[in-house]
């Protein structure tokens, strides 16, 4: 046997004995083994703490705000004049700005994203998909400040050359650019939903002589509809929370209007304006950003929750 | 009795096929349209800013005079932020992921934390800014320092790091852990010397991508009151600083006053995108080079 | 009890008397007493009473899902890694009950090694794979580790194939080589027992032959429990065989006898391929 010739330098000790010698440290090791999960639990708890901290700061400071400004004024007034002699704090102008920019973005991202999803999941070969999908996702990796710059210095002048009535800052340009930015989100999530439609369903349609288009529209999309809707809802939530593009390209006019050529402020842009200005802590203006942020947080949270509900129903179907 | 008129069907087939092939190109066009915009954006920015990038611009101090202005301060500030973010997210993110994947019993608390992380990932970044302003800048009195900015951005990307680390840990085959336990290794020994090293390339890839998300963020920094007009370079965690996105933001706004500022903004964007490109290349390199396939 | 004469120069492990192999019944190394096991609500092992003799090969056979893997995983308490598992009964290993709370699972697994169905080397070098066990048990010295690695690889019949590439990643080896490496990794901590769960089912015939030869050579020093689906394999290499069915031991005895004149009709049916 080959083993006979192995020289073992530890002439009189077997591995076993060597290993046993090290056992003395076992009790320290045991304590350590027990401590590790406890410490790691604290790490995991940081995320819960973050949520608590967000809710706590937003709510306590917003309470200060609502002690000075009534709910009715905040939610129904169309006047937002935080710095005037006779200030008023109506949310509606900001809401209209947010709503309008979101709608414009979705008008762009919805159809384009969905069409891209159809192309990627139903038409593209594996190779093309593997090439196009990461490229499309590059769009989502560009910082929003860059999109803001692009909207302000390129898209707005371009729009103005076609449509001169458009103001220097307006809600249309950032809305369009935001739409481009969230295309990958819609495309990617919708494609995932369409991809998980079982192939047997497609084969059923092809077997009856349906074209790819008919299969996509009459079979795949209806089957994946909840996933697609969920992707839209998530995209809307993303658009509502988007900040820099609208801050830069839509200005800070607080007007309650639905004219896309006008400058309009969104909720996010308002927070940026007030917090980067020098509103002293303790003033009503200062507290107003918490009220706006709480509204923003609630809206996006509800949309995300809704998206999850819809997506879950979709997953149950298969 | 025949319900189906073959001739009619055949006529319709031509139409259906044509519609199908036309729409195929429409769909392809839609897919490419985003990329076309991206190309325009890049080409325009580069052509506007490239001429402004020179040694003085990269290494110089900030100045009101566009010809003299440099962005070293912003570059350094972004690097300092990265240090803080890497330190906190890697430890907290990896630790939380290990806890959730390998230690936690799958029950109430586990699903509470998990849901919470998913929800945090959807919170708008500006809300994190407000959190940072209230807690780090004011309550803890860090002021508008590197630490306050870094911590805020860390919290912002932490959910991404946790989720991607969890996926990485989940991708480690169970048989490896079993082999280690079978040799008498304890749980932590198994995690430390088998599971974590195996998952590390994917964890790093995910963390680098999260980092590149963090350094492009602007809104939280604006809310924290990070200035853009700052001459001295940051030298420590408690120093005031500015960062590339802030610099871009103010130069874009002030382009209304001094036209050349738009060019400086474009030049700074090139630098920022270059940094993101390098980070992403590193992430892809790590993934291709070190990731194990099972 | 006496100190056994060693075949080679790693001496002084206390081992039980093993002379007169043919006359004396071997002592049992494992003894299970009404062992029951549940995965949640479903019972996977029912009242198992088995005595597994030392320094021999015990084969476990039975149709898929009958609890073979579950059984050998209880022998080194690997089943504990599944949260829903509950056990009742005793398993005595060298006289002490390993299912009692004070028996450390890590210590047990140091004595009772395991080789798995699919080769599962760590994504590390060949050397580091073998050195992993000794290292976690505190052996750090390079020269000792070198010796252990060399000896284990030799004992696992794979030294000649890998001695020039010890620093290379173990994933570069063929399936059969990987499985022998996994056996070497197991030998490196000098276990008393080696549990093997279908160790050749993922291998080609030639690799299977090599691993079978290896297993037979190991029985001189180790007690081996092997689960197999391959009846010929069980007949070829094992000394005694247990036939499991629906979580119960139907028959346990000398391999020769069990395969030639089974006492239970269900065993007969199974070895004749009539079900399972
Ligand atoms: N992790 C688990 N959770 C729940 N039930 C399990 C689990 N593992 C095994 N079982 C069940 O326990 C029973 C025995 O499984 P076991 O894996 O021991 O069978 P086996 O004899 O090894 O089968 P095979 O020959 O297919 O490997 C089976 O009914 C199986 O479904
Ligand atoms: Mg099995």
TrEMBL record, chain A:
<keyword id="KW-0812">Transmembrane</keyword>
<feature type="transmembrane region" description="Helical">
    <location>
        <begin position="91"/>
        <end position="117"/>
    </location>
</feature>
<comment type="function">
    <text>Part of the binding-protein-dependent transport system for phosphate; probably responsible for the translocation of the substrate across the membrane.</text>
</comment>
<dbReference type="GO" id="GO:0005315">
    <property type="term" value="F:phosphate transmembrane transporter activity"/>
</dbReference>
<comment type="similarity">
    <text>Belongs to the binding-protein-dependent transport system permease family. CysTW subfamily.</text>
</comment>
<dbReference type="Pfam" id="PF00528">
    <property type="entry name" value="BPD_transp_1"/>
</dbReference>
<feature type="domain" description="ABC transmembrane type-1">
    <location>
        <begin position="95"/>
        <end position="307"/>
    </location>
</feature>
<feature type="transmembrane region" description="Helical">
    <location>
        <begin position="285"/>
        <end position="307"/>
    </location>
</feature>
<dbReference type="InterPro" id="IPR000515">
    <property type="entry name" value="MetI-like"/>
</dbReference>
<keyword id="KW-0472">Membrane</keyword>
<feature type="transmembrane region" description="Helical">
    <location>
        <begin position="138"/>
        <end position="159"/>
    </location>
</feature>
<feature type="transmembrane region" description="Helical">
    <location>
        <begin position="171"/>
        <end position="189"/>
    </location>
</feature>
<feature type="transmembrane region" description="Helical">
    <location>
        <begin position="38"/>
        <end position="59"/>
    </location>
</feature>
<feature type="transmembrane region" description="Helical">
    <location>
        <begin position="219"/>
        <end position="240"/>
    </location>
</feature>
<keyword id="KW-0592">Phosphate transport</keyword>
Automatic annotation (TrEMBL), chain B:
<feature type="transmembrane region" description="Helical">
    <location>
        <begin position="142"/>
        <end position="163"/>
    </location>
</feature>
<feature type="transmembrane region" description="Helical">
    <location>
        <begin position="71"/>
        <end position="104"/>
    </location>
</feature>
<keyword id="KW-0472">Membrane</keyword>
<keyword id="KW-1003">Cell membrane</keyword>
<protein>
    <recommendedName>
        <fullName>Phosphate transport system permease protein PstA</fullName>
    </recommendedName>
</protein>
<feature type="transmembrane region" description="Helical">
    <location>
        <begin position="221"/>
        <end position="241"/>
    </location>
</feature>
<dbReference type="Pfam" id="PF00528">
    <property type="entry name" value="BPD_transp_1"/>
</dbReference>
<dbReference type="InterPro" id="IPR035906">
    <property type="entry name" value="MetI-like_sf"/>
</dbReference>
<dbReference type="GO" id="GO:0035435">
    <property type="term" value="P:phosphate ion transmembrane transport"/>
</dbReference>
<feature type="transmembrane region" description="Helical">
    <location>
        <begin position="21"/>
        <end position="43"/>
    </location>
</feature>
<dbReference type="InterPro" id="IPR005672">
    <property type="entry name" value="Phosphate_PstA"/>
</dbReference>
<keyword id="KW-0813">Transport</keyword>
<comment type="similarity">
    <text>Belongs to the binding-protein-dependent transport system permease family. CysTW subfamily.</text>
</comment>
<keyword id="KW-1133">Transmembrane helix</keyword>
<keyword id="KW-0812">Transmembrane</keyword>
From TrEMBL, chain C:
<feature type="domain" description="ABC transporter">
    <location>
        <begin position="24"/>
        <end position="271"/>
    </location>
</feature>
<dbReference type="InterPro" id="IPR017871">
    <property type="entry name" value="ABC_transporter-like_CS"/>
</dbReference>
<dbReference type="Pfam" id="PF00005">
    <property type="entry name" value="ABC_tran"/>
</dbReference>
<dbReference type="GO" id="GO:0005524">
    <property type="term" value="F:ATP binding"/>
</dbReference>
<dbReference type="InterPro" id="IPR003439">
    <property type="entry name" value="ABC_transporter-like_ATP-bd"/>
</dbReference>
<dbReference type="InterPro" id="IPR005670">
    <property type="entry name" value="PstB-like"/>
</dbReference>
<dbReference type="InterPro" id="IPR003593">
    <property type="entry name" value="AAA+_ATPase"/>
</dbReference>
<keyword id="KW-0067">ATP-binding</keyword>
<protein>
    <submittedName>
        <fullName>Phosphate ABC transporter ATP-binding protein</fullName>
    </submittedName>
</protein>
<dbReference type="GO" id="GO:0016020">
    <property type="term" value="C:membrane"/>
</dbReference>
<dbReference type="InterPro" id="IPR027417">
    <property type="entry name" value="P-loop_NTPase"/>
</dbReference>
<dbReference type="GO" id="GO:0035435">
    <property type="term" value="P:phosphate ion transmembrane transport"/>
</dbReference>
<dbReference type="GO" id="GO:0005315">
    <property type="term" value="F:phosphate transmembrane transporter activity"/>
</dbReference>
<keyword id="KW-0813">Transport</keyword>
<dbReference type="GO" id="GO:0016887">
    <property type="term" value="F:ATP hydrolysis activity"/>
</dbReference>
